[in-house]
């Protein structure tokens, strides 16, 4: 199990939360086994939460009774990870239990979750309660077991009205903020939210369009490897990384930097660091964060220490592309940080002009002298 979570953490997008989800999780022996395993995974940074499937009956006591269920819930939350009730339905077992018993048990579970979130004993929170079906006519168990909040005619049952009465009308939202894990991601001691070094790991960077990405030891700005972006068939085919909105909040300023190098094609190439996002109208947008001209065989830094993410941005991807070429290129030391943070990098490339032997930006007699000296010495030494 640990290997599964290790690989998932390594290769899943940064914004992907990893949960262990199971059934009969309130049974004491299984509960304790889940607790021990998930505590170890959480302490190793491999687990974000636990899912309780929660297919139970309306008996207030017994095997899946309220006491056994809430004990398991609190035990899992005590680890410090979040918890979600992922598939809740409460069967009446073909008339064995009453609508009132069903309503009472739904209420008890919701109340336990609400009570914990108001007065938690750890960092963990109940971030979702998902009902497993729309109505009793559409349930994975037989309709006569009537396990859901709406009847077969899609009318609210006692369980539904009981749950809605638990929250004062003044506290109901409009659906625009459904909740979830709202704990922000904090930067490290340097003010960085992420640092992609590409030392044996693509670090959640992915190819865009036809492009493929992999780590390569052919060149590196820092360390021994960089990210190779290849098989591009269009200028926009580059490499990108999804930005987690818990760290990169729309409307706020951030500092972004990445170093780029290429070896093929023309003497110079134009590169862009951009942000792809969806705006408030659901339209795809592509905003330039930074740009730079690279000289073949030299690193150039694309950086903007005060880039403001559009306030309506969702589905954000930071990516690198070229203006026109489809050359392979390399990325290294990609960093996202607190706004205003200066990030060291290769800086801007100095464009090379034919005849400017000493690369001082001026072609004059000094260049002619150096050229003659170079010819006579076959350009050996300095």
From TrEMBL:
SUPFAM superfamilies linked to this entry: (Trans)glycosidases, Galactose-binding domain-like
Keywords: Carbohydrate metabolism, Glycosidase, Hydrolase, Polysaccharide degradation, Repeat
Organism of provenance: Ruminococcus callidus ATCC 27760
Stored Pfam families: CBM_4_9, Glyco_hydro_10
Record-linked InterPro entries: CenC_carb-bd, EF_Hand_1_Ca_BS, Galactose-bd-like_sf, GH, GH10, GH10_AS, GH10_dom
GO BP terms: polysaccharide catabolic process
The keyword Hydrolase appears for this protein: yes
Active site residues according to the UniProt entry: 87
Gene Ontology MF term list: hydrolase activity, hydrolyzing O-glycosyl compounds
SMART domains named in the record: Glyco_10
This protein's name: Glycosyl hydrolase family 10
């Amino acid at each position: 199990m640990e290997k599964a979570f290790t690989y998932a953490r390594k290769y899943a997008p940064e914004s992907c939360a990893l949960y262990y989800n199971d059934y009969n999780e309130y049974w004491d022996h299984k509960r304790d086994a889940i607790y021990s395993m998930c505590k170890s995974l959480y302490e190793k940074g491999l687990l974000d939460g636990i899912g309780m499937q929660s297919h139970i009956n309306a008996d207030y006591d017994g095997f899946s009774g309220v006491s056994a269920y809430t004990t398991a819930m609190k035990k899992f939350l005590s680890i410090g990870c979040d918890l979600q009730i992922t598939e809740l339905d409460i069967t009446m077992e073909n008339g064995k239990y009453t609508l009132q018993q069903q309503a009472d048990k739904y209420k008890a579970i919701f109340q336990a979750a609400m009570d914990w979130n108001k007065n938690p004993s750890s960092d963990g929170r109940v971030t979702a309660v998902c009902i497993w079906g729309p109505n009793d006519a559409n349930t994975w168990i037989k309709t006569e077991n009537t396990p859901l909040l709406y009847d077969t005619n899609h009318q609210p049952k006692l369980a539904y009205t009981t749950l809605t009465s638990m929250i004062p009308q003044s506290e109901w939202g409009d659906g625009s903020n459904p909740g979830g894990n709202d704990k922000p991601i904090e930067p490290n001691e340097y003010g960085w939210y992420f640092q992609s070094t590409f030392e044996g790991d693509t670090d959640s960077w992915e190819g865009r369009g036809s492009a493929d990405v992999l780590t390569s030891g052919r060149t590196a700005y820092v360390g021994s490897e960089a990210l190779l972006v290849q098989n591009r068939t269009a200028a926009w085919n580059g490499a990108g990384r999804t930005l987690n909105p818990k760290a990169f909040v729309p409307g706020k300023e951030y500092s972004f930097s990445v170093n780029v190098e290429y070896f093929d094609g023309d003497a110079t190439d134009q590169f862009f660091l951009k942000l792809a996002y969806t705006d408030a109208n659901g339209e795809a947008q592509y905003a330039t964060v930074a740009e730079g001209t690279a000289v073949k065989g030299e690193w150039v830094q694309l950086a903007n220490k005060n880039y403001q993410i559009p306030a309506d941005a969702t589905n954000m991807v930071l990516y690198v592309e070229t203006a026109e070429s489809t050359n392979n290129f390399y990325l290294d030391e990609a960093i996202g940080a607190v706004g205003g943070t200066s990030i060291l990098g290769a800086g801007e490339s100095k464009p090379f002009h034919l005849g400017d032997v000493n690369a001082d930006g001026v072609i004059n007699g000094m260049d002619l002298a150096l050229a003659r000296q170079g010819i006579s010495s076959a350009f050996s030494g300095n």
